[in-house]
Amino acid sequence: MTELVSYQLDDGIATLTLANGKANAISPDVITALNAALDRATEDKAIVILTGQPGMLSAGYDLKVMTASPQDAITLVTAGSTLARRMLAHPTPIIVACSGHAVAKGAFLLLSADYRVGVEGAFTIGLNEVQIGITMHHVGIALARDRLRKTAFQRAVINAEMFNPQSAMGAGFLDAVVAPEELMPAALAMARHFKKINLKSHAATKLKVRKTLLDTLDAAIAQDQISGLT
């Protein structure tokens, strides 16, 4: 059986690769595996690169779980929100190498990272929740409000506007867009840049900069557990 999240450590850089079927669905087991990989990266004091399969970072939460029952959906979203909060406070930099489509929770992975590089091509990036009949959760609203450009926030969250890689960079989902063959070299170049900075100062500064957001997410996680996805 293929690992849901593989872990490769090389010269202080940990590459985490999602591999959960064609859509790279974010399931409870994937979240458990991602948390375990982040635990390992913390122990290794490694810069993190998170990526997916060619053409797909993730199409979002596992729909089988999301439609099983309201409680199953709430439990999965809570775990995913807690993961996003963890990524935002991770002690070493997290780079997402977006290998293609990044939709719903896939796009929120981008909004939870320190640096995001995507690939050129006919790929879709964005938050389609209201398009598929899901009311955006409080954590999603707070995260998008903080990380997206002001001009794109309501278009992305309320209107479910989807972006191609270039317009996703303008909206705030990505920091750079490169040719597909340059994706991992670009991510590794940024990781090597991060290795030159003082990681203790990086971690402390990150927590200062994001304190208000992290506090807001803590309250939003609790609120979503009470109100559900309505």
TrEMBL record:
Residues in the signal sequence? none
Q: Which GO terms describe its molecular function?
A: catalytic activity
Which GO biological process entries does UniProt record here?
fatty acid beta-oxidation
Q: Which PANTHER family match?
A: ENOYL-COA HYDRATASE, MITOCHONDRIAL, ENOYL-COA HYDRATASE-RELATED
Put simply, this protein is called Enoyl-CoA hydratase
